Every structure is written in structure tokens, then in C-alpha cells.
Amino acid sequence: MYDVIIVGAGPAGSTAAKLLAEKGFGVLLIEKFKIPRYKSCSGILIKKTLMLIDRYFGESVPESVMCEPVENKGMIFTNDKGKEYRFEQEGRNIWRSSFDYWLVRKAEESGAVVRDDTIAVSCEEKGNFVSVRLHGKKADIKSGTQTYTEEARYLLDCEGVACVLKQKIMKTVPAYITTYQTFQAGTIDLDPHYFYAYLQPELSEYDAWFNVKDDLLVLGVAVKDTGKIRHFYNEFLGYMKRYHNLKIEEQIKSEKWLMPRIRPGCQIDYGVRHVFFAGETAGFLNPMGEGISAAMESGYQAACAIADHFDYLDQVYAAYGQSTENMRSYMQRQWSLTGEMAETFQEMK
User: Fold this and answer.
1) Looking at the structure, do residues 142 and 249 belong to the same domain, yes or no?
2) Cβ contacts of residue 225 below 8 Å, gap of 6+?
């Protein structure tokens, strides 16, 4: 029986797994995809994320996970009236698959047991522990996959936007935003050291964005209605051609993903009895999809609360909520600021 089973080997899950394993707890880290896993993401580490990595992992982000241009100088927002807002700060440009893989390896080096290609099917409370049904290949079984059960005192759900376990536990279906982005070979008259977000309603139902990764132009739009992806994407391409001299030579690839739709009040779900939530599963997500810093911090604080108050469930909740209050307040202020910048997000004021 493990002390903690963590579902989801992204920034939240890996950070939590590393801390708990270092403190001597028995940790099983489950990932439904084959590691290294792929995730559609801007891949920008903001200054706060860099500070958290230094604090939680005791070292800087390795060059092996970065892409060109390595240095990110901040974000430039264009609101629905065409006004620019510049937010200058130090950052790094990374590939999420490589970054997440590095985090997982750090958790494993600290003593966490990692099982990829394994799905958490369901979980059930049994007194003072949780029974989790998994489907995958156990390390000690050589022949194929199977459905089996593991038990732990706590389960930390860090699945991200999918949050299948959370949906089953809370019997709710979260609201999603669908993202669509392409990687293009071409040229454009914009500084590749910035991440650009466009909030004009004619370009998307949420936001549109541009950044550069290893000389590839990344252009994306986010929608509430998936049937409108092609319309908004074409509108965004036309906008970038008119105002920034975009010239496309060849499309390398395209991808779709989901992210939570944060609602007014920025509700946070900390968990249900012995099942805790962190990262996007809990509701932590900053504007323009910046979820890495919130995922790492919430995963770390959830792990600290479990480690410090392992035998006292109420105290775990109290410590987790208190330690993330500043983060939740910061998130609310950021969404409120976004609401003041553009009518697209006016409900968030």
C-alpha cells in the first residue's frame, strides 16, 4: 500500500511526487501517456516558474529542454480595441515534452515509482484510504496490460484539463475551451523573443496567439464552439498577414487541445475526503493558458500539506487552502485585469 498515488505526470504531479518521495513517503506516479508525453502548450516559462524550479528542484532548467530563441522577454497583449499592453519579464522558451520528461525523471530519482501508459479508471474511498483501479502494465508483470488495484492513504489528482477521476467523483462536467495551433515555416515582422496574445473577438472566441519555437511560427486560436475553428484561424492568419507581414512557406503540423474555461470567482476545488486536486484539475490557471507555475506551486503545496499532517485529514485541507490563498488571490487579480483589458473577458472583472 502506497502513502500517496498521484495521477498525472505533468508539472503538478511530478513536483508533488518529488517532494513526497524525498520526505520518505511511498509514492506511485501514474501517467496515462507514454513518457516522454506530448502536450500542446505555449512552452513559455515565466519568471515565477523559473524561481519555483530553483526552489523546488534546486537547479536551473537544463538547456536540453529549451528551444530557440531561448530567452523570452515577456508577453504583449492586444486588446479588442487594438491597444497594446506590454508585460516585460525574464522567461525561457521550452518544449513541454522535454520539460515534463525532466520533471518526471527528477521525481523518479527521488524515489517515486513511475508507471506510464497507465490509466486511472476509478477510485473508491475505503475507510481511511483510497482504492484506485488502474489499467496498464505493472512493472513486475511481463505479459501485456491488465486492470488491477492499488491502494494508498491519499490520492492526488493532477490529470489536468481532462480530470476524468474528478468528474466521476463530483459528478460534474467542466466547461472547456478548445485550442488549435499550427507550426509553420515562414517569416513575420515580429520580435521572436515575445509571446503575443490577441483578444479581438473577430479573431477568436477566447484569444489568439503567436510565438516562435526553433524557427517555426506558432499560430493558434481558442474557441468555445469547435465548429468555428477554421473560420477564426483563417481570420487570424489574414490579420497577421495584414499587420505583421506574415508569409507562410509550409505548414509543418497542427494540433488541438483543451483547457479549462475559468469562470467568474475563479472557484478552486481542493478535493473530496482522501482525494485531493492540484493544477488545472483544482482550477488553477492563469490568463492566456499560463498554467505551469500554478501547477507546480499547487502540487508542491498539496504535497507539503499531506506530508506535514499525514494522519489528520482536516489539517491537510486547512494547510493546503491556507498555503495557496495568495496564489488564488493572484490568479483572481490577473483574470480581473484581463477583463478590464478586453470585453471578451469582461465577465471576469
Assistant:
1) no
2) 205
Note the pLDDT of residue 25.
Answer: 98
Please state, rounded to an integer, the average pLDDT across all residues of the chain.
94
Q: How far apart are CA 292 and CA 284, in angstroms?
A: 10
Mean pLDDT of 298-326: 98
Strands (E), 31-128: 44-45, 66-78, 84-94, 113-115, 119-126
Rounded average pLDDT over 108-137: 94
Which of 260, 294, 316 is the endpoint of a domain? Answer: 260
* CATH number for position 246: 3.30.9.10
189 & 252 share domain: yes
Sequential DSSP letters for 279-346: GGGTT--BGGGB-HHHHHHHHHHHHHHHHHTTT-HHHHHHHHHHHTHHHHHHHHHHHHHHHHH-GGGG
What is the model's pLDDT at position 139? 63
Please state whether the peptide bond connecting residue 69 to the residue before it is cis, i.e. omega within 30 degrees of 0.
Answer: yes
Q: Are residues 36 and 138 in the same domain?
A: yes
Residues 165, 248, single domain; the answer is no
Based on the fold, state whether residues 250 and 231 are members of the same structural domain: yes
- Per-residue pLDDT, averaged over 145-161, amounts to 94
Residue 130's domain comprises: 2-70+94-174+262-348
Report field, pTM of the whole predicted structure over 0.90: yes
Distance of alpha carbon 79 from alpha carbon 309, whole angstroms: 45
